[in-house]
UniProtKB/TrEMBL annotation:
This is Antitoxin. Pfam families: PhdYeFM_antitox. Transmembrane segments: none annotated. Belongs to the phD/YefM antitoxin family. Antitoxin component of a type II toxin-antitoxin (TA) system.
Length: 96
């Protein structure tokens, strides 16, 4: 099952939140996937656990960084020394 199929499989009416928040929350945490919430039969919101949201944002930031590196390589920018790159990464982690 692809990620898109998994998202589509998690569709709940808005009453699911109002009537049984705990079960709805458990679904979000267990699946770690977005849940489409419908209102009057139409898609209205997308809800996910905070942990899943953080992971999604981290993947997005990583994708942006990789795209930037790809652009630098395509532009012929010289590559950095591996030890220097790791030292910079460690510095960023220490300051985070």
């Amino acid at each position: 099952m692809s990620r898109q199929d998994h998202i589509i499989a998690n569709i709940k009416p808005s009453t699911a939140i109002r009537h049984d928040y705990n079960s709805f929350s458990k679904l979000c945490h267990e699946t770690q996937a977005p849940v489409v919430v419908t209102k009057n039969g139409e898609a209205d919101l997308v809800v996910m656990s905070f942990e899943a949201y953080q992971k999604m944002m981290a993947r997005q930031r990583l994708g942006q960084m990789l795209a930037e590196v790809d652009r630098e390589i395509a532009a012929g920018k010289p590559m950095r020394d591996l030890d220097e790159a790791f030292a910079e990464i460690q510095k960023r982690l220490d300051n985070a």
